[in-house]
Every structure is written in C-alpha cells, then in structure tokens.
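Backbone-to-sequence.
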C-alpha cells in the first residue's frame, strides 16, 4: 500500500472515532481528538483554540440538538507527519433530519503515532436564510 493510502486509512479510522464520540454525545472525548494547539475555524466566530475550548464548542453544538455527523472524505494529502483532508459533512438532529451539510478541510498532525485534528474549518452548503 502506498504511504498516502495508509495515511488516508488512518484518517478515516480517526474520523470513525470522532463520529462515535458524537453519537455518544461526549464533547470532552471529541476535544481530546484535537492537538494541544488545535484551532476550530467555524463560520461567524473567532478561532476557538485548544482542546478544552473546542470541547466546549462541541458541547454547545450537541445541546443545540445535533446528534450525529456523517463525513465523506474526498481527498487526503499526506505530508510526513501532517495530512490535509477535504470532504463533505452532514449534521443530523435527533429526529434524523438534516440540520446542515457542507464541506470541510482538516489539517491533521500525527503525534506519538496518533492522528489528531489540528486545524478544522468548514462551511455550509445550505442557502442563506432570509
């Protein structure tokens, strides 16, 4: 298997762990999947820095009714201990209804053999509401 294929496989496995944390509603576990210097870059917000603040952000998202996330990795570009992932996401409310869908880019860092989210940015593909 080529190195990029191995990295993609590892990133997809890390994403499965992230999705399992969402299904459990475990924002602290989600925060722990990020590097110590991680940043979330959500729309309409200043950067959110560090695992604790990131966990707080995801706790708010979970409290707003997001219960599940679906990720579709489109591309992974491995650069040594760094990887760039692009893909599509769908957020689901508790009733299975789509709450949002869009696209994302994550910069991953490999730390002590584990791939962790480092920079996480996304934006909706839904039309703006008036």
């Amino acid at each position: 298997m080529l190195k990029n294929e191995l990295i993609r496989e590892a990133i997809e496995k890390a994403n499965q762990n992230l999705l399992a944390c969402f299904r459990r509603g475990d924002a602290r576990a989600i925060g722990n999947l990020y590097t110590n210097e991680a940043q979330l870059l959500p729309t309409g917000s200043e950067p959110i820095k560090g695992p604790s603040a990131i966990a707080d952000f995801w706790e708010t998202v979970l409290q707003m009714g997001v219960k599940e996330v679906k990720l579709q990795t489109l591309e992974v570009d491995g650069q040594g201990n760094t990887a760039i992932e692009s893909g599509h996401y769908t957020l689901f409310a508790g009733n299975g209804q789509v709450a949002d869908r869009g696209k994302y880019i994550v910069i991953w860092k490999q730390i002590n053999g584990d791939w962790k989210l480092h920079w996480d940015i996304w934006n909706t593909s839904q039309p703006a509401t008036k």
